[in-house]
Specification:
This protein is mainly alpha-helical and 39 residues long. The chain has one domain (2-38). Helices cover 92% and strands 0% of the residues. It contains two helices and no strands. It has helices at residues 2-25, 27-38. Helix 1 packs antiparallel against helix 2 (27-38). The protein is elongated and about 35 Å long.
Length: 39
Amino acid sequence: MPNKLFKRDSQRVAFLPCVDFSVLGGMRRLRYCVAHPLT
């Protein structure tokens, strides 16, 4: 259970900066950042 929660939280942490970058870099960068933590 804790390991699953940690993995979920780490994905959220990885996602947050990507949202900020999408404002500067465009939707293509956002799409990359969404796909990257999931793979």
